[in-house]
Amino acid sequence: MIVADGVTKTYPSGAGSLTVLHEVHLEVEERDFVAIVGPSGSGKTTLLGLLAGLDRPTSGRVTLDGVRLDTIDEDARARLRSERVGFVFQTFQLLPTLTAIENVRVPLELAPGTGGESGFESRARELLERVGLSDRGDHYPVQLSGGEQQRVSLARAFAHEPTVLFADEPTGNLDRDTGAGVIDLLRELNEEAQTTLVLVTHDLDLAAMADRIVRLEAGRLVSA
Ligand code: ADP
Ligand code: MG
Fold first, then answer.
1. Are 176 and 145 within 8 A, CB to CB?
2. How far is the CA of 168 from the centre of ligand 2 (A)?
3. Measured CA distances, 1 to 26, 30, 114, 122, 208 (Å)
4. Rounded to an integer, what distance in angstroms lies between the CA atom of residue 166 and that of residue 65?
């Protein structure tokens, strides 16, 4: 499903450059749940962004669902993401000017050949209900708690039935109980949709739920 082969990412830095990922090799099978752990600054977010096609490696190959992400341009990557990729962020990243229901509709409107106006609305309502927020559809993100915002972003992430879901420290900004609720929901939705899941976390209890744990240290993948 996902193959990263010799993936290196270098950023320009002052007069020189900073290599934040060194020749990373990772393979994720279809429907696998892989957790990426490692200290802050070790390159976890960078790696996730490359696997999800948000960014391109400096060298090396990334293949997602049979498509080479390192060779296609941003438009093609954006199209692929809108068709096949879901993303959950630590900071929720809901659009502040849209209501909860409108946020969930965004990926439906971007995905090709789905539903039409009434289909979008009913699918978005169904998802909000699934995450326990059917009475909050008309609320804006600022009117929702952190846990509620993350549940809206789960509904958004699964809306267009992605084949792969990437989650970057999805509980990082939540207290322990709220985070646990979000994780239960994430696992349920993932189970139902049979999505491949790649999740970055600091939380070792959460990582322990994964089929496999990989560890990054200073931009290098080491076995966990
Ligand atoms: P993690 O998610 O493990 O905390 P990151 O992937 O966010 O780590 O960052 C890894 C390293 O890359 C850090 O040293 C960070 O400062 C650096 N970095 C991340 N993004 C950029 C960027 N756009 N430009 C320059 N350096 C970056
Ligand atoms: Mg990070």
1. no
2. 7
3. 11, 5, 23, 30, 22
4. 14
Look at residue 47 and give its three-state secondary structure.
helix
What's the distance, Cα to Cα, between the start and end of the chain in Å? 21
For residue range 19-55, what is the model confidence (pLDDT) as tens digits?
999 999 999 999 999 999 999 999 999 999 999 999 9
> Can you tell me the distance from the alpha carbon of 204 to that of 87, in angstroms, rounded to the nearest whole number?
21
Computed from CA positions of residues 77, 81, 84, 90, in that sequence, does the dihedral angle turn out positive or negative?
Answer: positive
Name the token pair of 211: 């089929």
pTM for this model (two decimals): 0.93
What is the atom index within ligand 1 of the atom nearest the CA of 42? 3
Number of the ligand closest to the Cα of 40: 1
Distance 93 CA to ligand 2 centre (A): 14
Ligand 1 contacts (CB < 6 A) are 11, 18, 20, 38, 40-46
Q: How confident is the model at residue 143 (pLDDT cuts 50, 70, 90)?
A: very high
DSSP string, 107-163: HHHHSTT--HHHHHHHHHHHHHHHTT-GGGTT--GGGS-HHHHHHHHHHHHHHT--S
> What CA–CA distance (Å, rounded) separates 166 from 89?
8
Atom of ligand 1 nearest to the CA of 216: 3
